[in-house]
Amino acid sequence: MSEQIDCVSEVRDRLVEIGDLDLKRNLKIRAFMELVLAPVFRDLQPRLRYDEMGRRGITPMQYFQDFRNYPAPQGYGDRFDGSYEVRLCRSVSHERRGGDTEAQPVERLILETRASLTGRPATGASVALGFEPPLGAPTVAGTGRVLHVFTRPQNPPGHRWVSEIPEEIAFLRPHPFEGAFPIIQHLAQLEGGFVEIEGAAARLTGVWGMANSDVFQHIHAREYTVAMENGIALSMAEAKLALESYLATRARVIFRRPSFVGQRYALTIRLFRRDAEIVALGAFHGSDDAGIADDSRAAVYLRFEGRLA
Length: 309
Hints:
mainly beta
């Protein structure tokens, strides 16, 4: 075997679009999809030989994303530097699956992406609305962690796991997975002191259309984040909370199964508060899903965190 390396990496800068920053010039959570994942798919994917694996029926499917946002008092400039690392991990956990009454060992091969975004915070107001303000020294503006689990999606249920390292990425040294493997039950747990905000619960319904799809033939991961951000605004308005005082600080999402054009969906959102902290829990179900009350079976589950400034 040729010499193995710890990870593949990339460093690059990015001039963000005007719509990636909010009116206070801080990054929106939805902007992290492009800032964290685009360089991986554009520049690192060829080195990871996704095409060759795909021809053998092996696909790294996005399962989890964790974006941390660090708002600055006066926001940031228009350019961010990003550093990216993709490494191979092996996770062994004990979980109850399907109709099992006892936890069983579950082994997964994972491509873990870690990204760090550096920006220059504003030190004053811009000379004209929308133009870049005076800037200070670089600081961390956000981080991202994304997990792609190797699977054989065309195989029958129970035969989709990939436990042997594909030859295309044998040059990557496998690492033990750090921490507990993320599951919905973990994201749904609230720390002490959080209380549900009365009157803030919301249920949004719709139909996924072509504008929500991507070239992989399913609904793009960004669409769930956009819907969640919009739903949080609706829930906060219903609860009569000041929308302009809200700062998004973290967003975690678990993708259990894909959605497709023409499918109806329902997004349920609940808001919880502890002093200035806000936690929003969201779950996507098919609108006719008989198990819609069971969020542990959601197609996509989201936990967004923020604070009232």
